[in-house]
Amino acid sequence: MVGAVQTGLVDGLPLERVPDLRRAVAAGLDHGAPDAVRQIEENGMLDSDGHEALLETMRRIVREVDSPKTAARPS
Q1: Nearest-5° Cα angle at 55, 71 to 19
Q2: Domain boundaries, position 20
Q3: Which among 69, 37, 75 is positioned nearest to 53, based on CA atoms?
Q4: I want to staple 46 with a disulfide (CB 3.0 to 4.6 A). Which of 2, 7, 10, 50 is the partner?
Q5: Cα-flanking dihedrals φ and ψ of residue 47, to 5°?
Q6: What is the model's pLDDT at position 7?
């Protein structure tokens, strides 16, 4: 989440969608960037490939949370 905020990935996300984003990140990173998650858990660091995988997964999660279909779902 911190990286998404620092890189501006969530700048356009309405505040009321933040709880949905938090849930989606918790569920999505293990599936979307498992090697990056493993690197963080084992080393506390990421190599450049892991960093890119993590950012791309976060971009996808933000797009999904910010999509009209997702916004229409009750929380």
Answers
A1: 30
A2: 15-69
A3: 37
A4: 50
A5: -85, 175
A6: 80
What is the three-class DSSP state of 10? Answer: coil
Q: Where are the beta strands (DSSP E) in the chain?
A: none
d(C-alpha 75, C-alpha 70), whole Å: 10
Please indicate, yes or no, if residue 9 is contained in any of the structural domains. no
Per the prediction, the chain carries an average pLDDT of 85
Is position 8 within any domain? Answer: no
Cβ(49)–Cβ(21) below 8 Å: no
Query: Has residue 51 got a pLDDT over 80?
Result: yes
pLDDT in tens, 34-46: 999 999 999 999 9
